[in-house]
Amino acid sequence: MAGLSQDELRLTLAGEATGNSQRDALIQFSRLLVSTSGTVEASAVEAVRAAGYSDRQLLEIALAITAITFTNLVNRINDTTVDFPKVV
């Protein structure tokens, strides 16, 4: 539903380069946000900005991660059936 091919989705989920530098910067930054704690290194913020993301978009990225995390927690509590097709 995001407009990615199966191959692009597989690479994205694996954390591998997709060949799209802006998308790859987004993926790397997002993975950094969810896998670390504390202040994000200035170099990481500068790298995602250099890829074309604005300060507003950086906050929107954080908001999207927050919403997804919240939804995942609620789904765990409710034992929600996941209806997305499996990525192969």
UniProtKB/TrEMBL annotation:
InterPro entries tied to this protein: AhpD-like
Full protein name: Alkylhydroperoxidase family enzyme
Organism listed in the record: Aquamicrobium terrae
